[in-house]
């Protein structure tokens, strides 16, 4: 298996203290998705949306990678073939662990101008009065792909899925498209498929192999098996 495509979701960062929008008691539990994670929400109440992502940004900057992030960085560094790591996460923990990753849903560390598409490093606190360093307009927003928007890097990701030997999904719910359909894309191209998750996802039935357990335990073991040729 020379070429591996790995997709990670919120489940891989849960053990670093970053909850998913399905967790009870976290930031997402305090807000409806429709109020903080859509273009319409930002147009309606930019102050609330900025406050929400400012809080998420502070959480992410304080968080540290766990053993699963570290293991994937090790696999990427030592696998003899190609390893493309794609994440739905916006927290930056893969980079902190030393991996190279495609952020299909953007990143909390980034800011975006809705007027000219200029991107720059986000300050810890953003507001609706911030101006773009390129065009000087106050149309700045988090560089996050919200519900209803097209994920980043899709052409690259689909090309990789159609040419990979192994597709692996880690910590994903199998509910959010287009990522939930990646396993079918890989299967149609003849790739083997593996899912590592805390529990069954909505797409578990589509994988050849399903490994259940906390990511900090299952991912390092799986990486060790891969690198040792088991």
Kindly list the characteristics that best describe this protein.
230 residues; alpha/beta; Rossmann fold; SIR2/SIRT2 'Small Domain'; 2 domains; 8 helices; 9 strands; elongated
Summarize, please:
The protein has helices at residues 33-36, 39-44, 46-62, 67-78, 93-96, 154-163, 182-188, 215-228, and strands at residues 3-8, 82-87, 102-103, 106-113, 119-121, 140-144, 166-170, 192-197, 209-212. Helix content is 32%, strand content 20%.
Overview of the molecule:
The chain is an alpha/beta fold and about 230 residues long. The protein folds into two domains: about 1-20 and about 65-105 and about 150-230, Rossmann fold (3-Layer(aba) Sandwich), CATH 3.40.50.1220; about 20-60 and about 105-145, SIR2/SIRT2 'Small Domain', CATH 3.30.1600. It contains eight helices and nine strands. It has helices at about 35, 40-45, 45-60, 65-80, 95, 155-165, 180-190, 215-230; strands spanning about 5-10, 80-85, 100-105, 105-115, 120, 140-145, 165-170, 190-195, 210. Strand 2 (about 80-85), helix 5 and strand 3 form a beta-alpha-beta unit. The longest helix is centred in the N-terminal third of the chain and has 17 residues, at about 45-60. The model has no long low-confidence stretch (mean pLDDT about 90).
């Amino acid at each position: 298996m020379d070429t591996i495509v790995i997709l990670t979701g919120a489940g891989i960062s849960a053990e670093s203290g970053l909850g998913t929008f399905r967790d009870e008691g976290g930031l997402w539990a305090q807000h409806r998705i429709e109020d903080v994670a859509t273009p319409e929400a930002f147009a309606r109440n930019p102050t609330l949306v900025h406050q929400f992502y400012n809080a998420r940004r502070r959480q992410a900057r304080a968080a540290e990678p766990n053993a699963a992030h570290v293991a994937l960085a090790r696999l990427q560094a030592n696998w003899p073939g190609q390893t493309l790591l794609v994440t739905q996460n916006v927290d930056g923990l893969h980079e902190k662990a030393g991996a190279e990753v495609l952020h299909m849903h953007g990143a909390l560390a980034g800011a975006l101008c809705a007027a000219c598409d200029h991107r720059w490093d986000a300050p810890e606190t953003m507001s609706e009065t911030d101006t773009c360093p390129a065009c000087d307009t106050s149309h700045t927003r988090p560089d996050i792909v919200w519900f209803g928007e097209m994920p980043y890097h899709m052409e690259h990701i689909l090309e990789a899925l159609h040419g990979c030997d192994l597709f692996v999904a880690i910590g994903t719910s199998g509910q959010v498209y287009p990522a939930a359909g990646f396993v079918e894309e890989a299967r149609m191209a003849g790739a083997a498929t593996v899912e590592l998750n805390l529990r069954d996802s909505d797409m578990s039935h589509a994988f050849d192999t399903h490994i259940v357990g906390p990511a900090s335990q299952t991912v390092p073991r799986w990486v060790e098996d891969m690198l040792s040729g088991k």
